Amino acid sequence: MKSVFITGCSSGFGRDTAKFFLENGWKVVAAMRTPDEGILPRSENLKIVALDVKNPESIRRAIDAAGPIDVLVNNAGIGWLNAAEGTSIETMRDLFETNTFGTIAMTRAVLPQFRERGDGVVVNVSSSVTLKPLPLLSIYTASKAAVNAFTESVALELAPFNVRVRIVLPGRAPDTRFGDTARSRVQRQGGFPDAYASVVAGVFAAWEQQQYAECTRSADVVEAIWRAATDPSSPMRIPAGADAVALSA
Predict the structure, then answer these.
(1) Residue 18: enclosing H or E segment and its boundaries?
(2) Any idea which UniProt keywords this protein has (predicted)?
(3) Of these residues, 13, 21, 140, 150, which one is catalytic?
(4) Does residue 140 carry a catalytic annotation?
(5) Cα 134 to Cα 87, 143, 203, 211, distances in angstroms
């Protein structure tokens, strides 16, 4: 029975991906900052571990607790929506520490076992905003674009060891808490700069006009992650969701 380690399983894409792999007969190590046994269905094939991807000791403990794994899904991340001028350096660093360095650190943590075994898959969940520039997302996009660059380069390093690395690029997913959480973080940190009021209004107006069928569903992302994990012929970049597919065309 194969095993998958998934970060960011407390909600959204991570939670739904963990459920899907369990339903398809995999052992699942579901990692989250604050473990909650009630988030996922009880199963003898499920192990829930605490993980803070910004903390090296937390990563070590989680990997040790997981035991041998076949696939790592780097899904943990935080969103941010604000002008660059309205984003503090501290917030920028926090985004990169989680979205970028957290992904890199988790990848490095599993590479010894993958390389020695001559098999393994790393799936990095990025974002379709890296495919087309959008306002108020410059810092978030930068953190995810760095993930793309890292993934494509490290994939070349690992190919001789039969280790595959893939990128999943979700679009905007209104049926998850990701966007709302990002906006609430902005409000807690002072809101949007007044000078950018018209830019902010334009962004939210565009979102309101976007039809649900044109957005990304959590199921789209789960399907893309499954494909990346199980299909050796899958492409390096896998868009997930109608809007992501349109941007990648």
Answers:
(1) helix 12-23
(2) Oxidoreductase
(3) 140
(4) yes
(5) 16, 14, 9, 18
The yes-or-no verdict on residue 120 having pLDDT over 90 is yes
Domains and CATH numbers, the chain: 3-248 (3.40.50.720)
38 vs 96: CA distance, rounded Å = 30
Per-residue tokens: 205 = 């107006």
The sheet carrying 237-240 orders its strands as 46-50, 27-32, 3-6, 71-74, 120-125, 163-170, 237-240
**Spacing of C-alpha 241 from chain mean position:** 14
| Cβ–Cβ < 8 Å for 168, 225 | yes
Tokens (6 digits) for 210: 């976007």
DSSP state, 44?
T
Q: What is the pLDDT of residues 44-72, one digit of tens each?
A: 999 999 999 999 999 999 999 999 999 99
Share of the chain above pLDDT 70, in %: 97
Q: Which residues contact 53 (CB under 8 A, 6 or more apart)?
A: 7, 59, 76, 98, 102, 103, 105, 106
Q: Among 149, 177, 189, 143, which residue's Cα sits nearest to residue 165? A: 149
For 114, how many CA atoms within 13 A lie in the half-sphere containing its CB?
Answer: 27
